[in-house]
């Protein structure tokens, strides 16, 4: 590849999931050229139930001027409740979502995943939308000192200065990157590169009709040994989930059938989702029940040469805390702020950024994000295990320590609140839009 091909600076992105589409907005506003290769044919598939959006992401939405469309779709949570999954007696009640709202202007807000994906896609200006190429499954990557060349399964190729892997849990970019580092073919990498995450639970999710008489703006966790429920209700949007411990933690990817879903619903029909309401009383709506393994973990090498990873490609969190996408957005903020500051990216010079200057940017990105990832991982794991208990210690934590020591409120005050406050904004806010304007 000759050096001319990397000018002007251009980014190739693998994957137009939630993180890839958010990257399109950020790069468009930052005037950085890009192309996204997405294997699906549909930019906004009708799958998934409800997403929780944390305040740090709401701030980025405001910077990107996405709030005017997203705000009316989102509903705030105010109360978080923990009940016994057996008999629905109340174990703990916290108003931490309202506290977050008071401190940060936004608390925890929920919206349908389909609405979020659709809004992210349709709100892209036409020029940016034309850079999202559908039906393009990334297959292989060639990299040299001047740039990357990405080849899809249908033979289509794209060139750029760097490749960002936003292609999710089973990231092909991650495999190609590791293969280049180890001078091997992706097929010859050992198992830990093929499946770096591990599942301890599976989750069944569905939209539901709001429960009559149940309060609105509430999140309720029904906790128990080996299985737990979660009910999220705004005013218009309600969804529920059942989390179930797997027979054995596994790194294998399972595809579940409709029979698996029916059996799981039957198995836990007696578990309580809200005081006086067991699973069997719920009316499932939306025609779309999901059943997935809850992979957890993160990888240690986030970049190699001109390839860098973001979102679920680099870190997977249990869904119960609703942080996965939110963390992916902050990956992008840190990474793209760094890229904008890298010599040779925004300047009109002929020679693009060198591997050495990109290496420094990617190293800073990895360092910043890995420092943070263990804290987030710790919160997510603890919360998951305090909900569907794996041992008597988890039971003691959920039933006694958490409510009596007010551990949820302490975690919010001493970990989450400062973390949200310190969460980065996109640089160049004058071009993108001032906070609060
Ligand atoms: C039940 C459940 C509930 C959740 N709730 C929340 C929540 O409330 N809040 C929250 O923040 N997070 C939540 N998450 C996590 C969140 O969904 C993920 O963290 C987020 O979707 C990650 O986005 P991503 O773009 O990195 O990956 P993905 O959304 O998986 O997108 C990856 C994209 O890459 C594409 N792709 C894959 N391979 C290739 C290839 N070879 N070539 C081209 N394209 C490719 C895929 O088709 C896909 O479009 C939840 C997850 C689950 C399972």
TrEMBL record:
Q: Which GO terms describe its molecular function?
A: FAD binding; monooxygenase activity
Q: Sorted alphabetically, which InterPro entries does this protein's record hold? A: FAD-bd (IPR002938), FAD/NAD-bd_sf (IPR036188), FAD_mOase_fung (IPR050562)
Pathway terms, separated by semicolons: Secondary metabolite biosynthesis
Q: Where is the FAD-binding domain?
A: 11-178, 296-336
Q: Which UniProt keywords apply?
A: FAD, Flavoprotein, Oxidoreductase
Obligatory cofactor(s): FAD
Give the family per the record. Belongs to the paxM FAD-dependent monooxygenase family.
Protein's name according to its UniProt entry: FAD-binding domain-containing protein
Q: Write the lineage as a comma-separated list.
A: Eukaryota, Fungi, Dikarya, Ascomycota, Pezizomycotina
